[in-house]
Amino acid sequence: MNDTLVMPRSAAEKPPIRRPQPAWPTRDMPRERLLEAGPAALSETELVALVLGSGLPGHNVFDVARSLLERFGSLRAMLDATPEDLDGVRGVGPAKRAQLLAIMEMARRALAEKMRERPLIDSPEAVEDYLRLLIGSRPYEVFICLFLDTRHRLIRSEENSRGSLTRMAVYPREIVRRTLSVNAASLIVAHNHPSGAVKPSASDRQLTRVLRDTLALIDVQLIDHLVIGANETFSFARAGWP
């Protein structure tokens, strides 16, 4: 039997690489539609996919974007995610995590910048939107202070304390100390209810009374205490205080 020598194919003889074809015409791709019709024309999945840029082997970027939204339950909850929340999400490595977190922080700073331009007492809706973005989807209670100047413009916002799903310790003395430190003339405080229900508890009412009376001793006005839920807000000031 004669041996047959099989020669390797030359580079020129290699089969051509087949590149996947897009699922829809270029003009219908999210990026092109965003540039032509604006971001409002895109779904939440498409917006997240544009930020991510690429998917995984066997899972395109839209699959990854969809699973990311399903994991957090909503776009708002995803925007409220921490680096730890995003860690371990399949298809979202360090570079994409950093990109998502940067966009989230840009949104928060843009809202804060908008609030600094005018008295907050004149724009309660903007205040509620800002607070909902900050803490509305947190799985634990967070207490936030908005320190205002004499014209009711935002000086800074700070997280005062953080608790569990149903409990949190807030110290009025620490709030007074920070108020004096930033030279605030008035405050708006807020905390979230992870359950989504915004009805204030007895301890919420007691804290509001104590905080309002304590701040009055240093001639600082507590403008409002807001309880932030997933889709609604309770205002102590609008309700006539405790």
Quick structural gist:
The chain has 242 residues and is an alpha+beta fold.
Provide a descriptive summary of the structure in words.
One of its GO terms (molecular function) is metal ion binding. It comes from Paraburkholderia terrae. Belongs to the UPF0758 family. The chain is built from 9 helices and 5 strands. It has 242 residues and is α+β, with helices and mostly antiparallel strands. The chain has 2 domains: 24-108, DNA polymerase, domain 1; 119-235, Cytidine Deaminase, domain 2. Strands 2-1-3-4-5 form a 5-stranded mixed β-sheet, with helices on both faces. A hairpin with a 4-residue loop joins strand 4 (221-228) and strand 5 (233-235). The longest helix is centred in the middle third of the chain and has 23 residues, at 94-116. It is elongated and about 65 Å long.
- Major sheet attributes: 5 strands, mixed
- Overall average pLDDT: 81
CATH topology of the largest domain: Cytidine Deaminase, domain 2
Q: Name the CATH class of the largest domain.
A: Alpha Beta
Structural class: alpha+beta
Per CATH, the superfamily of the largest domain is: Cytidine Deaminase, domain 2
Q: What is the molecular shape?
A: elongated
The CATH architecture designation of the largest domain is: 3-Layer(aba) Sandwich
What Rg do the Cα atoms give?
26 Å
Tell me the distance between the termini: 102 Å
User: What topology, given as strand order, has the largest sheet?
Assistant: 2-1-3-4-5
Number of domains: 2
GO molecular function, one term: metal ion binding
Pfam families: RadC, UPF0758_N
Keywords: Hydrolase, Metal-binding, Metalloprotease, Protease, Zinc
Protein name: JAB domain-containing protein
